[in-house]
């Protein structure tokens, strides 16, 4: 796949792809224009047509540049002058296109390919139980603030609420039973956090595994 399911992520990807294509088209047009200008400059002055869509002042300036090119070409040996000018025109146009487009592609293309490979692998892993465990493990390696946000989405404490021992009276007075911690609150479960997510993953808690796997899919912009 090439685009995310999440509308916001997909819009950013489309915007980036459009900007990359526009960048390529602009430099292709610039290279063609430069090559055309070099060809006009290599022609004898009497055979140069007026460049269309340009005013007389701009056309006169470009013709002045062409006359300067005539002097450069005439400085070379006569048999090699026109051929050398044509070769330089082609090389200059190619360089004008390849350098900026190549720099852009080295930054943009690897990121797009990397996301595509990650998204395809994540979708394949999400279709199996063992694969979702791997996605959950991947999610555990995210920054702590992202893990804390994932933990808050859990419906209950990870791993489930500890079961009460039927032989233990939850209303027992800690002052009467010296074995109980007086600071222990038996009615309030511990707040979920990144540490509890790791505990739920070790215990293969399905609620925790699903929450972590879904968080990893959503990070990539995919449907959970």
Q: Can you characterise this structure?
A:
The structure is a single chain. By secondary structure, the protein is mainly alpha-helical. It contains 7 helices and no strands. Helix 1 (7-42) crosses helix 2, helix 3 (81-126) crosses helix 4 and helix 4 (129-140) runs antiparallel to helix 6. It starts with 6 loop residues before the first helix and ends in a 5-residue tail after the last helix. The model is unreliable at 157-170, 172-176 and 184-189 (pLDDT under 50).
Structure summary:
This protein is mainly alpha-helical and 224 residues long. Helices cover 65% and strands 0% of the residues. The protein has seven helices and no strands.
Task: Report how far apart the termini are.
Answer: 16 Å
Total beta-strand segments: 0
Q: Strand-residue fraction?
A: under 5%
Helix content: 55-70%
Number of helices: 7
Q: Structural class of the helices, strands and pairings?
A: mainly alpha
User: Main β-sheet: number of strands, strand sense, barrel status?
Assistant: none
What is the ordering of alpha helices and beta strands?
HHHHHHH
Determine the oligomeric state from the structure: single chain
What's the average pLDDT?
74
Radius of gyration: 34 Å
Gross morphology: rod-shaped
Which stretches are poorly predicted, pLDDT < 50 over at least 5 residues? 157-170, 172-176, 184-189
